[in-house]
Design goal:
The protein is mainly alpha-helical and about 325 residues long. α8 packs across α9. The longest helix has about 70 residues.
Length: about 325
């Protein structure tokens, strides 16, 4: 990251923003680096693993599950199954993941990730998964050697299990050489699973936006055809009315001026209707957010957690929560 900053040190602000946004860097370097260039920015300022993993990666994976993976028809049914799922001793019941996910606290995101991985494994059916996601994710699985032999539904469950295993390895109580290796392997595996879910989810979001644009065009085309039919009917009635009065100018020719009709007096514009339908659809908030998920710092920070564990014996020793000095 520091090398990337040095590479674009003389670039314009627009160039830096274009590159840095993709990797989750701020445009301007922290003043601390200039004050103490030899300072290790990652070890001396440990990331808050609870926020990064539970409130970050885990919650975003659950959001992808609700918004893109589970078909809208089965979303409430899946949430109901999760609510009645038997919880381990000491774990509280979860609120509906379909309606209250965004209000989940850190502990609820952690519990939900583990429970969802189990529930997906034992009860998820192919018909409950969005058709576009099922197809795209199935193609992505073919490129993963460790997923060969799994069905697409089993692959989805495996991804959430990998994220849960990554959380478990990161917050383990006892640390030794094996724990460091386990954190490295499980952490990277969990990030790959997260990226697979996000990439397939983006395809679903794009497909829904595209379908919305198609429906908008169909409605505008139908409205334009209806307005054109009214226009033609009004002209015919006007021509017949003039003809019945015996007027010599009742015969309409191509050079005659266009006769005003009621639709035109109201300001209806057929061309404007079609142009509105062909215009680029406005991206939704969910669609815009999903495109930035791969660039958030939470995805990258897993590479530094093993070093953090070596310095502090366990990332648990570096945890801070809202209201403490680090956040003031």
């Amino acid at each position: 990251m520091l090398q990337l900053r040095r590479q674009y040190e003389k670039a314009t602000t627009a160039q830096r923003k274009k590159v840095f946004d993709k990797v989750g860097l701020a445009i301007e370097q922290s003043p601390v680096v200039g004050i103490s260039p030899a300072l290790d920015m990652f070890v001396t300022r440990p990331s808050n693993a609870a926020y990064s993993e539970y409130q970050g990666i885990s919650k975003r994976a659950l959001t992808a599950l609700v918004d893109h993976i589970i078909s809208p028809r089965f979303r409430d049914a899946f949430a109901a199954r999760l609510q009645v799922m038997h919880m381990p001793t000491g774990w509280g019941w979860l609120q509906s993941i379909a309606t209250h996910l965004q209000s989940y606290k850190i502990s609820e995101c952690a519990r939900a990730t583990a429970c969802v991985a189990i529930l997906l494994r034992i009860s998820l059916k192919a018909k409950e998964v969005d058709a576009v996601f099922l197809k795209v994710f199935g193609l992505a699985m073919k490129e993963q050697p460790d997923m060969q032999g799994l069905t697409t539904v089993e692959g989805i469950a495996q991804c959430f299990a990998d994220i849960a295993h990554s959380n478990s390895a990161l917050f383990a109580h006892g640390w030794d050489t094996a724990a460091y290796r386990r954190l490295q392997s499980k952490g990277i595996q969990g990030r790959k699973a997260f990226e697979m879910l996000v990439d397939a989810g983006e395809s679903v979001g794009a497909e829904r936006i595209s379908q919305a644009a198609k429906n908008k065009f169909k409605r505008a085309t139908a409205a334009a055809a209806k307005a054109k039919a009214k226009q033609s009917t009004a002209r015919q009635k006007r021509a017949l009315s003039i003809s019945s009065e015996g007027s010599q100018s009742s015969v309409l020719t191509e050079t005659d001026k266009e006769i005003p009709i009621e639709d035109e007096e109201r300001g209806d514009n057929i061309g404007a209707l079609i142009q509105a339908a062909r215009s680029k659809p406005t991206n939704t908030k969910k669609g815009a957010a999903s495109g930035r998920l791969r660039a958030i710092p939470n995805v990258h920070v897993m590479l530094h957690f093993p070093d953090l564990a070596r310095q502090y014996n366990s990332p648990r020793n570096a945890l801070t929560f809202a209201g403490e000095d680090k956040h003031r």
